[in-house]
Design a protein that fits this description.
It is built from 11 helices and no strands. With 191 residues, it is an all-alpha fold. Helix 1 crosses helix 6. The longest helix is centred in the middle third of the chain and has 20 residues.
Length: 191
């Protein structure tokens, strides 16, 4: 083996993930190429395949990491509204992960690590509904959860795409979301 940078790298897996997240953030997931990421990391074009096999494997790893970070972000939130705020905060803090996580066609849906990470995040989301008083959970708490998820995901998606600039203005998006969640999930608007 030669001692050039094309064969040795301190943490190639993380370097490729970091480069991929940068590409996704600026150009979207469609712009990803293992060959380009190898060039960015200064390794041979085949090196990333040792960690990810192919582009789908890389995107699956990104989604898995995203769901783990997402579950961590939701953990220990005191109530449904704050879980929604953390949802929005996660999306704005990890926009590349967020893009990949919610495009299942990009990933291997049966990957055991991805399945486990998604399940953990789902449990954290459902836990938020259980913090509502019984009368506010509705007849089917799953539907209440779907409504809450739709509000948080829709708000985060619209915020990331720049479609809320007029509505949010210079206000803190998290405070705007808190206000929306209160109007939707708190009958009297009180905490």
């Amino acid at each position: 083996m030669t001692s050039t940078g094309t064969y040795h790298h301190g943490d190639l897996r993380q370097a490729v993930l970091t480069a991929a997240l940068d590409v996704i953030r600026t150009e979207g997931p469609g712009a990803l190429s293992l060959r380009d990421l190898a060039r960015r990391a200064g390794v041979s074009h085949a090196a990333p395949a040792h960690h990810f096999k192919d582009r789908t494997g890389l995107l699956t790893a990104i989604a898995t990491e995203g769901y783990e970070l997402f579950a961590d972000a939701l953990a220990d939130a005191p109530d449904l509204r704050e879980r929604g705020v953390r949802y929005v905060r996660f999306a704005t803090g990890h926009p590349a992960h967020f893009q990949v996580m919610f495009q299942p066609e990009l990933c291997r849906g049966d990957d055991p690590d991805l399945v486990a990470a998604k399940l953990r995040a789902s449990v954290e989301l459902r836990t938020g509904v259980s913090t509502l008083p019984a009368a506010r959970r509705g007849e089917d708490p799953r539907l209440t959860g779907t409504a809450a998820w739709s509000l948080a995901h829709g708000f985060a998606t619209l915020l990331l795409s720049g479609n809320l600039s007029g509505a949010v203005g210079d206000r803190d998006p998290e405070e705007v979301f808190r206000s929306l969640a209160a109007s939707m999930f708190e009958a009297d608007g009180a905490d």
